[in-house]
Amino acid sequence: MKSTTAESFWNEFSHEFIPTLNHLQAVPFDRLDYKPHEKSMSLGALAVHLASILGWWKECLVHDELNFAEGDFTPKTFSNSEALIAYAHDLKDKAKDILESVEESEFDKIWTMRSGDTIYYQLPKRVICRTWCLNHLYHHRAQLGVYLRMLDIPVPSTFGPTADEN
Q: If we measure between CA atoms, which residue out of 70, 87, 69 comes closest to residue 78?
């Protein structure tokens, strides 16, 4: 790695990939429409969102902004677990390539999230990587764990045994 910040992020990301993958593998593809509440996203949408976050390193490090007024933000769909897991592995590999090539100075550059002329925020890329590529991943992985619990599907371990493993 060219950057100590990138190396630190990669070490954390690659460690956290394993429980994330385990959660994604537990998704029952016969229940993708399940919602614990009418305001909640569906299980299928949540699983795709969680997997997609694994690839946000490109948006946060290679680019200097994310403009929702440009580009296609249509979520992907998957018909089976194997395709979802392959997508997750592909995004992990791409994240590694990005983190291996990024210079330390890139993390100090300002990154902008906007929709056209409306700026939501501007922060250093190191903050964006922490918030969007890691913390956001953990948030939605925990949310997926709640969905699995509500569906009475064994919740995979994240930091130690779950109630299903005791």
A: 87
